[in-house]
Amino acid sequence: MTLGKYSIGIGDRFGRQGEAQLQALQLLRKEGVNVTPVWNKSYREHAIINSKPADTRAEADAAVRALDWQEPYFVDADHVGMKTVDHFITASDFFTIDVADFIGQSAEKSTLEEFVERNRKFAGALHIPMIPEPLTVTSEQIATIGANYLFAIEEAQRIYRHIAAQKKEQPFVVEISMDETNAPQTPVELFFILAAIAWKEIPVATIAPKFTGRFNKGVDYVGEVHQFTREFAADLAVIASAIERFNLPAGLKLSVHSGSDKFALYGPINAALKRFGAGLHLKTAGTTWLEEVIGLAEAGGEGLVLAKAIYRHAHARFEELCKPYATVINIDPARLPAPDAVDGWEAAHYAAVLRHDQSQPLYNPHFRQLIHVGYKVAAEMGERYLQALDQFRPIIAKNVTTNIYERHLRRIFL
Hints:
Strand order of the largest sheet: 1-2-3-4-7-8-9-10
Radius of gyration: 22 Å
Structural class: alpha/beta
């Protein structure tokens, strides 16, 4: 079971767009680039939608059969911890082990001392191929990194062993996620995090650090692109070095979470992947759900009525819907149009406001972010929403495929 050099996490909250998503990967494959699909959905999303991991598995399997996809594919238990992982054991073969909440908690003193001793040889000038200047490392710094991250790695080991015991001989992919924390990890920290992962014998395939800047849901990157570019390249160099030094899996690669719609970064990411010959896992975040709403609006009639209703209810429930996503959205309520005004929009106007096209004067990132977090409204519509997805499937599917293929895959991987 091989993840492949390039892979993409494709979330699909309502489980109707699997074929449209896979069609985007087929189009890229015709251009000579293979990207492995990984259908991902978190416990929180399942709870809101009232779906189960088995539903995601069924969607992925059905899409693969329908399009005769002969390459590997996976189903990701997204952002799981020990409290939630058991829900995903049967259906998933990719596990994103999220240990961000354990960063900063202290490991046992003896374990920390052993970690420092094992890595003391790296103190001084740490030379990493393809990083021009050596990294400066002190024993005190190694101890601080251990104090911040070792307990989190031990938690990842505990969850990995639990999964392995349940899966028995069934193979699965392991990702370790540290992105949902306050401070980004430096290249030096990533180096010793990988040393700890190797020490704890976790066969990690992808690692998701936190990068500099804001990765807000559904909109472009906010931050200093040049700084991200330097950081991303340094992380690629560190991973390549750690694979060799610590005997980590040869295919280990970076994972960029909430990576969809970060168009400002795709050029630098593309260039860095080519420069280093590196792989990448890009995890999307709600971009397919937004294309569903765009497709409904463009369909007109009942579809447009439904899209307007979603916005009206989301606007009325602003605080409730935004609270769980407060750290990953930035919505100015003053920039949101009044629901009564939206009710007067034509189909093309609604779609232009919502679609992520920064060359379009009508595009409104605040409106887009509110729709992004408003999927709970659609879930509460139940069959009305699902029937609309079926009724307007062709126009929705066209938007979903075009978005993934044109705005994401081609920019990153070609």
